[in-house]
């Protein structure tokens, strides 16, 4: 079997080599994304694999089908870059990656603690030998009400993590998860915004969740309420969030994701002019923490992503089922 693996990162190579040997594969590895121009690299292959920066739109999928390729894996969880209707029509089998929710859940709790202990300005001070305490007084999670929006795999794991901290847990979702109901109380989204000291977003990006954090929901928040977003940048109306920070209507925000992060996050942009003005502006605030979409990035998760990416292609070519095929 021969596969073309797009968007290969250095940290994936060792695992790819192990799988190549295990399944006796021929692999073409490239750091480029899959698009109409790069599709020809996969000529003669039985399958292709990408990360999330390849646009698997109808044109690209058509091109794959013309080349006789009917197996495609995306080595990440999100599937908003794949035209699944086109894939079904063209009979291209598609899989995504499945990995444990705990990497993102642990990272979420880390961001919460960094916010409430004012770790960003403390870190700045350390670097210039300023060991003063003024302005760094924090709060304890135990006394807080924490709200989780989206109680799927990650949201529920965050609630499990937080259950050890002794805080009160509220949650909201369009469908109830029994484990989340055991750990916290289901309330409406508006109640999350009005009652919680800390709010964390864990829904996918859908029409119903786009700009879930907006002028109206922000106005419901407590003046020292804080937000964490480890899900998708587009869940927040960043203009409204920026105004809330500027006018000190909320206590702080931590974001591992940002609207229009593509082309910036996961790249070294040190000598570039940043194209995302909101990102560059918000970064300055002591109570705004931003990280480069890395909550998922653990050794365990990368191993699972590469394994799902290769094993699903092997299964598809052999006409077998695979547990993370997208129906
Ligand atoms: P999941 O599908 O297990 O859970 C999502 C939950 O959101 C579901 O319970 C669903 O019912 C709920 N939901 C959908 N619409 C809703 C709405 N309108 N209001 C309230 N709840 C709603 O997904 P997951 O594995 O927990 O991942 C959640 C999101 O985290 C992903 O979609 C992805 O965008 C993001 N993510 C980010 C990273 C990162 O590195 N920062 C890594 C993995 C996933």
Automatic annotation (TrEMBL):
Stored InterPro entries: D-isomer_2_OHA_DH_cat_dom, D-isomer_DH_CS, D-isomer_DH_NAD-bd, D-LDH-like, NAD(P)-bd_dom_sf
GO MF entries: D-lactate dehydrogenase (NAD+) activity; NAD binding
Ranges of residues in domain D-isomer specific 2-hydroxyacid dehydrogenase catalytic: 8-321
Keywords: NAD, Oxidoreductase
CDD domains recorded: HGDH_LDH_like
Location of the D-isomer specific 2-hydroxyacid dehydrogenase NAD-binding domain: 109-295
Family: Belongs to the D-isomer specific 2-hydroxyacid dehydrogenase family.
Protein name: Lactate dehydrogenase
